Amino acid sequence: MEYGYFDNENKEYVITDPRTPVTWINYIGNLKFGGFVDQTGGALICKGDPALNRIIKYIPQLPNGDFKGETLYLRVKETTGYKVFSPFYTPTLDKYDLYQCHVGLGYTKIISKFYGIRTEVTIFVPLDEEREIRDITITNNNKDSVMLDIIPVVEYTHFDALKQLTNADWVPQTMQSKAYKNQDGYNILTQYAFMKKNNGINYFTSNHPVASFETDRKRFLGNNGYSSWSKPYSLMQENLTNYEAFRGDNIAALMHHLGELKPGESRRIITQLGQCSDLIVEQQAIEKYRDEKNVEKAFGDLKKFWNTFLDNIIVDTPDDAMNTMLNIHNPRQCYITKNWSRDLSLYQLGFGGRGIGFRDSSQDVMGILGHAPEDGRELIEKLLHVQKRDGSAMHQFNITTMEANAGDSREKEDRPDYYSDDHLWIILAVCSYIKETGNFDFLMKEIPFYDKDKEENPLESANVLEHLKRSIEFTRKDTGDHGLPLLGFADWNDTVNLPTGAESIFTANLFGLALKEMIELLSYLGDASTVQEYKMCYKLMQDNLNKYCWDGEWYVRYFDHNGEALGSRKNQHGKIYANAQSWSIISGFAPFERAIKALNSVNKYLSTEHGIKLSYPGYNGYNPEKGGITSYPPGAKENGGIFLHSNPWVMIAETIVGNGDLAFQYYNQINPVKKNMKVGEYECEPYCYPQNILGDEHPEFGLGRNTWLSGTASWVYQAAIKFILGIQPTYKGLNINPCIPKTWKGFKVTRTFRNAIYEIEVNNPDNICKGVKQVIVDGVLIDGEIIPIFNDRKKHEVKILMGQ
């Protein structure tokens, strides 16, 4: 069953049935101010820390048809009373004649028609502003005039999001609401927790005179709160009570009497939800966004930002679904994931302050560097601030306070307090940034190491290059019995938590790739002695991996504290892991013959129609010595599930060995656009990648979950652009080396790079997967595959002829 369609011309996905199998969302704003909006207008909005500065109460565990955070009621006066309904479908669940939720770039637009009343609401956060705008236009499409009222409503949460759910005494006692009305009849309803009044006042207002208001949920619902959001008792009365709540469940409801709407007549109301420290100071900004022209300009500026962002890389391939993702939805998801990390999603709600992940964001940032490199640099700098002086890194941190923690490992006293892979990802991010921009000066920027106890240990800083060298040094020294990196609490796979002394093949390979990146960078910088030292480190790790980790048809994944292999044919469960195969090739450690065998094993044991499983077969029962992986049933998440983050690594590995057909097949298997016709089975949004899909050992094989904030977005984008299409920035220019399906006759890419625009056309007359025969730039034949850096703000024509 279909629930909507892609509108590529307007860069939107249009939901035509609000009754999606699970909640589908879109992001507005950013971590400074913003959150997400669902397909029926519900919203979760915060300012800064989602755990400690939440504004709206949104509880996704409630039934789909329930009110969540924010809604809009319309009220038509009839001879027998009032007809009350929501143009967002929920919470009244009236039958609609038209429903469209336009999932746009940084905005959601809901267009609906109920009872002859057409409503159009555009929801967004203006750039560099701290307010949610809802621009509402109501049109009477009936043959007769109607008397219409409009009542927008928000439900507030305590700023400490977790306490809202855990302390039913203290929280209600602190909630306060007040109303302010100016001479024009415009109301501002404010809400705050008593102890936070001076630095966190939430407000809700509109650009239309307000007849009455309500701030208490129980009074709004009526019948001592035993009425429901689907039919609030207060909306059966002419006006709301104008009650200012001094405790309890605070809401903000504004009653607007629009009066008579003649046939074809429209009314427009603009609401603002924001937070400020001083309402008097904020008044000027509130007045600004009461003006329709200013709202229209802000929305135009938002669209301009996204168009500029996307225009940096535009592809035209023979596959429409690939074009849809690469030109619109995949880079958009990369940017959203860069903004939010895993701090606030429909699945990870920011309770307890999970924060920004060092490993997560180091990977996320690589997905936006071709579009917004300086935004990427700013995040990279923040990440480097939480690297420790020994070269390892704190696992996660709060973007507002820059306080960091060791993640789950802190709670496991018998396990190491670090993740073995965290600190190595930043090498890939920094090198990617410099290849994109040529900003080698960044390597000399001084950035302090993270040290919470600054009094006993004076703050130490070093330049970025030294930070990267310390990352290498930590892993070089932190090895086990096989000369492979110690696992720590975990590596990339958080759920395998082995006792102290275990070794990680994944981290060994990541170390290998990090070394390759450092060797390339330092060679360009002319540091021959360090290059030689790192080449020796690389060779030693390569030898150890091939000596101890080859299992006959694939590479093992771990050695436990007793030296026993996991991910081996000898194991009953978890015989083979995808990452041990893909990363042994990405690192360059695997000889070609072993690379082919390892990838054949992935195809044989792990590939399914819905994607590549992370491991096989799944564990069937909890084993505390193995850790979290065994807490899932077989086929779920890391335990034999299709964990999508790891799929693009197999795509990349296949391009390295020259198999464009299989790389593209794997790309198609997880492309969410392809799921649009199978939403009943897949359930998730078809316009962004989820974190996981249930594997074929699970009875609900093909079901997706945990969309939006996933490292999948960055890595699939890199796999497609850099490896399948083969457009790779280097220190010397753009390297063009595609690995595509044999059936493709070619493709085109427009790529902005180093202040020039490269219009690239690739032709494949011989129907091969890989191989560049000829490169012509601006009509001139050049040697090699690297297109030079022009830096002249001009367009340059690049023609690539594939061939042996």
TrEMBL record:
InterPro entries according to UniProt: 6-hairpin_glycosidase_sf (IPR008928), 6hp_glycosidase-like_sf (IPR012341), Gal_mutarotase_sf_dom (IPR011013), GH65_N (IPR037018), GH94_catalytic (IPR033432), GH94_Enzymes (IPR052047), Glyco_hydrolase_94_b-supersand (IPR010383)
What residues does the Glycosyl hydrolase 94 supersandwich domain cover?
11-291
**Listed SUPFAM superfamilies:** Galactose mutarotase-like (SSF74650), Six-hairpin glycosidases (SSF48208)
The record's keywords, sorted A to Z, are: Glycosyltransferase, Transferase
Q: Which GO terms describe its molecular function?
A: carbohydrate binding; glycosyltransferase activity
Report domain Glycosyl hydrolase 94 catalytic positions: 305-726
Keyword DNA repair in the entry? The reply is no
Where does the source fall among the domains of life? Bacteria
Q: Which GO terms describe its biological process?
A: carbohydrate metabolic process
Q: Which Pfam families does the annotation name? A: GH94_b-supersand, Glyco_hydro_94
PANTHER family registered for this protein in UniProt: CELLOBIONIC ACID PHOSPHORYLASE, CELLOBIONIC ACID PHOSPHORYLASE-RELATED
Under what name is this protein listed? Cellobiose phosphorylase
Q: Which organism is it from?
A: Natronincola peptidivorans
Q: What is the lineage of its organism?
A: Bacteria, Bacillati, Bacillota, Clostridia, Peptostreptococcales
